[in-house]
């Protein structure tokens, strides 16, 4: 195979790695050839290959497991990806992100209610069962359960692109969401609002599920706005 040439060496090598994964029929979790084998295959040096691998890892296309090897990442088939270079969300952006969730997630809750099935409902119930066990200060575990609930609801709606949008938005302002738990300081109320959304989904009541999700997210935004603009 001919050597990849500069000046777009890293870009070209990244594309050829993706081509190897797709044409090889590899799925998330599949192990790929070793770094040495890939360097020989593409006729590039190991440092050059590692640069391309790091770029792919940043987008979730591959996973580098120390001492184990290179694996196809869970995000290889995603259409929407969070920015791997994001470091800080400014106040105005955070409010806009929450505004986006208010637009997107309530209709998805309605769609989830229309499609509610046994296995997916069991996932939602399991997530909230976990959340219910962490209402007394275990905020890291509670945050993860809360975010899992929103992700699972979006996934149940049946639109993979919108699910990826929600997943990306949650990832972008994950640290701020953890702060909300402390500022809102009513974990039980937050938990009960999630239970109410689940109840509407279980009852296959789309309008009610949509209304409850919207009310919940509007309340979250109100808390954030109050924190960013405290009364004088």
Automatic annotation (TrEMBL):
<dbReference type="GO" id="GO:0003677">
    <property type="term" value="F:DNA binding"/>
</dbReference>
<dbReference type="Pfam" id="PF07729">
    <property type="entry name" value="FCD"/>
</dbReference>
<dbReference type="GO" id="GO:0003700">
    <property type="term" value="F:DNA-binding transcription factor activity"/>
</dbReference>
<dbReference type="InterPro" id="IPR011711">
    <property type="entry name" value="GntR_C"/>
</dbReference>
<dbReference type="InterPro" id="IPR036388">
    <property type="entry name" value="WH-like_DNA-bd_sf"/>
</dbReference>
<keyword id="KW-0804">Transcription</keyword>
<dbReference type="Pfam" id="PF00392">
    <property type="entry name" value="GntR"/>
</dbReference>
<keyword id="KW-0238">DNA-binding</keyword>
<keyword id="KW-0805">Transcription regulation</keyword>
<dbReference type="InterPro" id="IPR000524">
    <property type="entry name" value="Tscrpt_reg_HTH_GntR"/>
</dbReference>
<dbReference type="InterPro" id="IPR036390">
    <property type="entry name" value="WH_DNA-bd_sf"/>
</dbReference>
<feature type="domain" description="HTH gntR-type">
    <location>
        <begin position="7"/>
        <end position="75"/>
    </location>
</feature>
<dbReference type="InterPro" id="IPR008920">
    <property type="entry name" value="TF_FadR/GntR_C"/>
</dbReference>
<protein>
    <submittedName>
        <fullName>FadR family transcriptional regulator</fullName>
    </submittedName>
</protein>
């Amino acid at each position: 195979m001919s050597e990849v040439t500069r000046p777009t060496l890293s870009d070209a090598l990244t594309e050829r790695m993706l081509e190897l994964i797709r044409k090889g029929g590899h799925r998330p979790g599949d192990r790929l050839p070793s770094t040495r084998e890939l360097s020989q295959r593409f006729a590039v040096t190991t440092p050059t290959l590692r640069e391309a691998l790091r770029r792919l890892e940043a987008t979730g296309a591959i996973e580098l497991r120390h001492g184990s090897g290179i694996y196809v990442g869970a995000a290889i088939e995603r259409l929407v990806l969070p920015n791997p270079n994001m470091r800080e969300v400014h106040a105005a952006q955070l409010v806009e992100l929450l505004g986006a969730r208010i637009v997107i997630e309530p209709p998805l809750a309605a769609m989830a209610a229309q499609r509610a099935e046994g296995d997916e409902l069991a996932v939602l119930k399991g997530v909230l069962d976990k959340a219910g066990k962490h209402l007394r200060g275990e905020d890291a575990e509670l945050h993860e359960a809360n975010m899992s609930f929103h992700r699972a609801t979006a996934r149940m709606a049946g639109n993979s692109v919108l699910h990826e949008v929600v997943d990306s938005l949650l990832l972008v302002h994950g640290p701020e969401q953890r702060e909300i738990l402390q500022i809102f300081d009513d974990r039980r109320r937050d938990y009960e609002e999630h239970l109410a959304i689940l109840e509407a989904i279980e009852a296959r009541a789309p309008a009610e599920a949509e209304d409850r999700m919207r009310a919940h997210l509007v309340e979250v935004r109100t808390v954030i706005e109050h924190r960013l603009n405290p009364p004088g």
